[in-house]
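Weekly sync notes, structure subgroup
Attendees: PM, AL, DS (notes)

Item 1: joint prediction request from the bench team. They want all two components modeled as one assembly rather than separately. Inputs as received:
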Amino acid sequence: MREVAIIGIGQTKVEEQWDKSLREIAGEAVLLALQESSLERVESIFVGNMMSGSANRQQHLGSYIADWVGMRFAEGYHIEAACSSGAAAFRSAVMAVASGSVDSAISVGVEKMTDSPGAEITSQLATASDADWEADMGLSFVALNALIMQRYLHEYHWQKDDFAGFSINSHANAAHNPFARFQDPISMISYQKAAMIADPINLMDASPMGDGAAAAVIIPLDLIKKRGGQKLVKVVASSAATDTIAAHSRRDPIWLAAAESSSRQAFTQAGINPEDIGVFELHDAFSIMAALSLEASGFAERGQGPRAAIENQICPKGRIPISTRGGLKARGHPVGATGMYQIIEVVQQLRGEAGETQVERPIYGMTQNIGGSGSNIITHILKAE
Amino acid sequence: MREVAIIGIGQTKVEEQWDKSLREIAGEAVLLALQESSLERVESIFVGNMMSGSANRQQHLGSYIADWVGMRFAEGYHIEAACSSGAAAFRSAVMAVASGSVDSAISVGVEKMTDSPGAEITSQLATASDADWEADMGLSFVALNALIMQRYLHEYHWQKDDFAGFSINSHANAAHNPFARFQDPISMISYQKAAMIADPINLMDASPMGDGAAAAVIIPLDLIKKRGGQKLVKVVASSAATDTIAAHSRRDPIWLAAAESSSRQAFTQAGINPEDIGVFELHDAFSIMAALSLEASGFAERGQGPRAAIENQICPKGRIPISTRGGLKARGHPVGATGMYQIIEVVQQLRGEAGETQVERPIYGMTQNIGGSGSNIITHILKAE
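Output from the run, pasted for the record:
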């Protein structure tokens, strides 16, 4: 397996981009990543996206985006794994280059959600769950996560406010990220006053939708060395695991078994331990998911995820910095793009380009993208060289 | 790049499977392929599908199918490239195993179209074209292909009936394939009497929809050799190319430039020429596409595709046998599954398991799956050992 590295990244701001189409948003991120890579084109493009077929009435995004950015004849595919589509596209690009099948690839995550009305988008998001046994029963995604959080509070005797630190950290970090959807810090009081959506999840526990795209260019490590001069970020681990699509089919719905599996594989591939990770961009679509991801990946004891937030271990100067550019909660969660935002944010950290929220000299950075209610979990570890 | 081979295949009949859900159809093909491989599970599953998000209100097919077939913790993704989703999933599986990232993978193509009413499915199929400049103007997929065929008749002075041989061959072959949607031969008279859909495309020029799934298990060649005894089909070429998503953006809309690109790459990878191909499962979604695919891939002169049908070169005993199990036209075209049906039908031929339509001792077999109106073309060459 050839070693691969990232030589260019690009992103758009996450916001309601009413004036731009899906291809304009994706194209902007792709062209920025190509520009930073000093490349005009790559051999393959992998587009991570969840809902364009229904939300934008446009499938076939591989050809669609390759055409738009002037890469006719490049190969192109659309990769989907619900909310983990971005990381799935990145992993696909890594495998394409690692296999030797191509010498350059771009992975772009994109979602254009504002083309669909609110009720319709809620229904489309539910296609990530089990259509027959969850969505058809009226369970929206926030409701599914509320059931999980409710059970967690019951089992481990936490109070709802114990989760506030996750949102406060994300918003504090997003205030320094010009690409974030929300750039104002929030306080404990605003968390406590936030409107309830699906008890116990309130508005400040839930990540916002948005339109956005993020992209990265990948080439084999030996070719990068020949190029010289560029800041090098190696992909040292790429792994994924699924779990049952329905949350109720899991013996322990408040333990992310697929995160445990994929993060263990990732640590083995990289030859490191959780203590070696300097920054962890996790999937805080809901604050309960941040806690569960920390636990299953070995950064917190089982049932003790909230403690990391309460004790301020998750801030940029803490033991395990998470959501350093705002996370899903405040940078925003354009579904299929999120996994790619995580990747490029870790690249920024490893290059020392994270500004006010820069973590001190990280060597390894990790991303974890979650599809569904924990049914598809993809972990990557990147390393600064 | 590790060499990879196919050790097991499975398929369902293409038909209107009203009584089965998408996961039951896909699961049937996957379990048959695993059974033939003497494996209980694989490390990765790649699901080729175009429209489940809108037609079945179910995305996230990687986790969904892995769960259903009892492969919890396997990694799983949904790969989409419109009508070439099946081949895209197969190519993804090939790259995953070739990269060394995993030692076993399954690729399954599935489409469950009967959940959607007719008008709605026509609109969903149009999401393979350019939403802004083709679909929104009212161009359905058959209309797009009719424009291409009309231009072809005009440029090269063929008569519509000159295309009859493609449909007659497909239906004659499907009569011997128990998995085919239509198993009755047709005559020149029934072709001539067929109802016009979009002039010049009549009912006998167009492939039928249907529900179905086909799957193949891939492992590294060296592991297969250790297993011993099994009939070996190597993947000796895998390549793909996109073209502009809109047909009108191409300088020459009656030449499949992406097919030329991907088939040339494939011949180079395999180190062979078109003359070495013993069987060619091409993408006869419409008879015009069969002609264009033969031309762009080097099996017919430019503008001379219909001659191959008229001169009976395409039948199982002919110079370049195509659609030997019925092709899209008569085996049926469950969109995202089609590319995988092509793969397993070539495997059947190379193993000598194609019954009445067996080609005489083929060594190399080729598949070509076309997404959109020629905007994503994926070519594979398999070899019997």
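Discussion: Residues 128 and 372 of chain B are 5 Å apart (CA to CA).
Action: AL to compare against the crosslinking data before next sync.
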